[in-house]
Amino acid sequence: MVINMDSLVKVVVDAMGGDNAPFELVKGAVEAVNESEKVKCFLVGDTDTINTELAKYQYDSSRIEIVHASENITNDEAPVMAVRRKKDSSIVVGMKLVKEGQADGFVSAGSTGAVLVGAQLIAGRIRGVERTPLAPLVPTLTGCSLIIDSGANVDARASHLVQFAKMGSIYMENVIGVKNPRVAIVNVGVEEEKGNALVKETYPLLKNCPDINFVGSIEARQIPYGDADVIVCEAFVGNVILKLYEGVAGALVSKIKEGLMSTPVSKVGALLSKKALKKTLKGFSIEEYGGAPMLGLNGLIMKTHGNSKSIEVKNSILQCIKFSESNITDKIKRNLQE
Amino acid sequence: MVINMDSLVKVVVDAMGGDNAPFELVKGAVEAVNESEKVKCFLVGDTDTINTELAKYQYDSSRIEIVHASENITNDEAPVMAVRRKKDSSIVVGMKLVKEGQADGFVSAGSTGAVLVGAQLIAGRIRGVERTPLAPLVPTLTGCSLIIDSGANVDARASHLVQFAKMGSIYMENVIGVKNPRVAIVNVGVEEEKGNALVKETYPLLKNCPDINFVGSIEARQIPYGDADVIVCEAFVGNVILKLYEGVAGALVSKIKEGLMSTPVSKVGALLSKKALKKTLKGFSIEEYGGAPMLGLNGLIMKTHGNSKSIEVKNSILQCIKFSESNITDKIKRNLQE
Questions:
Q1: Which of A160, A240, A260 is the best residue to mutate to test the B interface, defined by the most B CB atoms within 10 Å of its own CB?
Q2: CA distances from A165 to A212, B221, B304 (A)
Q3: ipTM value of the model?
Q4: What is the pLDDT of residues A310-328, one digit of tens each?
Q5: Is B81 on the interface with A (CB under 8 A)?
Q6: pTM of this structure
């Protein structure tokens, strides 16, 4: 079969970022290329290191290309300074490929701060976008929901939140495939008069926004039950939601394992139920959904967890394909510049 | 045995508030009186209704007294208006007993808004206390932690958060028995320069506060692991934490039940591990800790969940005993007025 290289979606993968770099990053890129014929990956980082990893796999070599970068930004570095100084780091080199239009998307498990800064300074915002939110997907009992914003830009204004609602709706509809996604704002109660100053100012703006399907306030308790698809909030709150989601789920699963191992009888029970339990819990796992998209940029920037495995990297790359195919950037441009 | 009625801790129970009123409220009061000889309960509400419930139990009748109240405040009512108008409601009548010094504490599963408003308007703040936080205990892998504030007063100032840290420390040390409780502020990262405007302003104040054991920032992910005892945050964030805790735990447990019931083999496994699992999960249950104390008032006001069972009511009453015995109100007065 002949693949038309021009029609491929081109995704940059930061091969050097994250706890499991380069192994899981390179593996994820190989898995994505093997799963979809629509994608070409650029692995950015040290050429020799990446070549050593690539040698382990079978794949269409015309669809994986190494782009050398001699430097690496770590989590300990101050993001703005690091992005400005390390011109030959994998994040800076990768973002430039996006900016120059050589790539449609960028996936990194590296420093969140550096990715967010690099996205703004190098890839660049879509004109009209006031702020670029980081919007992770969280699992719910009925599928998944987008938490927008949970990035590093705290203390948002009402106009930012309205843009988040619009961009989040476009993403959920086109990339995740949720028709007419329900938008809700995180609040301390469902009554319209409830909320802090920001929520009270934002609520009527969302209510009167014709481009979205606003369903009102959502209490945090209802998020895991899937009561809304696009969960709008200020970044500090979104960050708390995302991290507590992980924390409570992690702690509870370890508590359950402790319970299952606590008596000889329960150990037998654990053995018998292990397979079914694992399968069900997989449906409630954050890793299944790939990384968090950063929206409002010229291209899709995906930030995956620092400890991402190849499945998360692969799923992030696959999201870039849908993102590019649905022309999300054009849709956001039209919608926000109206 | 002769009980000295004067030395008893006197706790008002709102018999009419909550989804399970009066049944679980009356039952909880009876259980508390039967478990501790140190307490006397005033059941506030409709005399006939309460008498019908009381007739079901055996207890020391000298330590349960009915105080008639002909009205009831529901969740649908605007709190301030309801408290002002319904002078003969169980909440208003009960709060007055606290204000007049006839009772040391008040327990309600009724309207959170009305309890918070009643506490401020009727029971009254301790002089020097700027805001009275609602501070629920949440389960962790190592015990429990206090989330302070998660009430209805959003958009707090830095000085409020410092008082929350002090009052929360006194509560955890004296009522829950945690020596030298670790205080942390909820943040989006652990580095000192991280945070929104409020956190950045509060952090140095907490750091320089000699009365508390401040351990720095805590990310929401670490709360369920018990990394701090007193979790300081603004009420909007605290409300999100409390409700998401319940939501994720509830959704995950239902997902696990689904997994355990999904195949014939796993069903057998579930049967064998059920007992051990239940016992372990009980240690991670919010109900075990009773209600949320509202601090900084002339007396202890405990708000329990709307759907509280008798165990939560009983545990809230028992917390009132410890609260009173440790002279928390005096300790807060001394600490905040220094």
A1: A240
A2: 7, 25, 35
A3: 0.89
A4: 999 999 999 999 999 988 8
A5: no
A6: 0.90
